[in-house]
């Protein structure tokens, strides 16, 4: 008899409240999430839970989180929430959790779902496109890793750890400093997989012996075939994943939605760096 445990990974929902009339959306994310939720409801055997790994909203406002909460009603599955760079803690706590407390606290948590120990870290930073982790979060992680010995563990982050040390691309994932400390913290631990988003690509890596799964998400796709080395190209494309944890290891199967891959925009690395600098200046003011 198999002991397979099945769950779903969605990411980069980028939901925006209808009243915002959001011109920065590159696709109808509300329609896409509605379609995906209906597909999830039809999965057999029924998955045990859903991971939603950040950029839940497009602007992080309370109204958009309330919109998301309304859309998730009736799913009747536990949802593991993580925060991304488009989210805000204040909007998340108030709009999705219905709490005015802890708006300045990172949303780090762990829980056991169908015999899997899921550990989630808040990598969002108010001044960076990329992600970061503070010292207290590593203390939380180390304590969580010591809990529920014998259960398989997965880690949920919006920003995946960096694969290379390239200063021009640090915005793509965790800061290099946090990446190195995360690698040291997880060394020797039995981690079944790390789930993340942010870069709008389905990308799978073997990171220090750990399966690293990055989801394309439900907003738009970054074109992996774009030849330029100093820019990124967005195209129409969305995807979610059906995941199975077997005794033999983790399987991730992508479920892309139909797409014509039409171009949605191109951004240069200097433009991204200028945007990040403007965010830092705004926060400092």
Descriptive account of the structure:
The protein has 6 helices and 14 strands. Strand 6, helix 5 (176-186) and strand 7 form a beta-alpha-beta unit. The mean pLDDT is 94. The protein has one domain: Metallo-dependent phosphatases (Purple Acid Phosphatase, chain A, domain 2, 4-Layer Sandwich), CATH 3.60.21. The protein has 285 residues and is of the alpha/beta class. The longest helix has 16 residues, at 269-284.
Task: Using brief descriptors, characterize the structure shown.
5-stranded mixed beta sheet; 14 strands; 6 helices; Purple Acid Phosphatase, chain A, domain 2; 6-stranded mixed beta sheet; 285 residues; globular; alpha/beta; 26% strand; 24% helix
Distance between the termini: 60 Å
- Name the CATH homologous superfamily: Metallo-dependent phosphatases
Number of helices: 6
In what order do the strands lie side by side in the largest sheet?
A: 4-5-6-7-9-8
* Form type: globular
Total individual domains: 1
Order of SSEs: EHEHEHEEHEHEEEEEEEEH
What's the pLDDT, averaged over the residues? Answer: 94
Second-tier CATH architecture: 4-Layer Sandwich
CATH C-level: Alpha Beta
Concise summary:
It is built from 6 helices and 14 strands. It has helices spanning 29-41, 62-72, 89-95, 135-145, 176-186, 269-284, and strands spanning 5-10, 50-53, 79-82, 109-113, 116-120, 153-156, 191-196, 203-207, 210-214, 221-222, 231-235, 239-246, 249-256, 263-268.
């Amino acid at each position: 008899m198999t002991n397979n445990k099945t769950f779903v990974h969605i990411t980069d929902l980028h939901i925006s409240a209808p009243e915002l009339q959001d011109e920065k959306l590159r696709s109808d994310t509300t329609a896409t999430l509605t379609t995906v939720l209906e597909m999830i409801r039809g999965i057999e055997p029924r998955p045990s839970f859903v991971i939603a790994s950040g950029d839940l909203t497009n602007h992080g406002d309370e109204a958009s989180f309330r919109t998301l909460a309304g859309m998730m009603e009736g799913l009747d599955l536990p949802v593991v929430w993580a925060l991304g760079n488009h989210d805000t803690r204040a909007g998340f706590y108030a709009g999705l959790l219905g709490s005015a407390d802890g708006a300045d606290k990172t949303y780090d948590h762990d829980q056991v779902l169908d015999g899997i120990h899921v550990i989630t870290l808040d990598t969002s930073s108010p001044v960076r496109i990329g992600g970061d982790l503070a010292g207290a979060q590593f203390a939380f992680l180390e304590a969580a890793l010591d809990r529920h010995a014998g259960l398989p563990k997965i880690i949920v982050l919006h920003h995946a750890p960096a694969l290379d040390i390239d200063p021009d691309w640090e915005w793509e994932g965790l800061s290099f400093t946090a990446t190195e400390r995360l690698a040291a913290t997880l060394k020797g631990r039995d981690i079944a997989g790390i789930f993340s988003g942010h870069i709008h690509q389905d990308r799978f890596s073997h990171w220090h012996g750990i399966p690293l799964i990055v989801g394309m998400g439900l907003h738009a796709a970054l074109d992996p075939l774009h030849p330029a080395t100093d820019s990124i190209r967005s195209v129409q494309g969305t995807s979610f994943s059906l995941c199975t944890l077997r005794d033999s290891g983790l399987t991730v199967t992508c479920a892309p939605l139909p797409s014509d891959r039409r171009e949605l925009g191109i951004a240069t690395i200097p433009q991204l760096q200028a945007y990040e600098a403007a965010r830092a200046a705004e926060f400092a003011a």
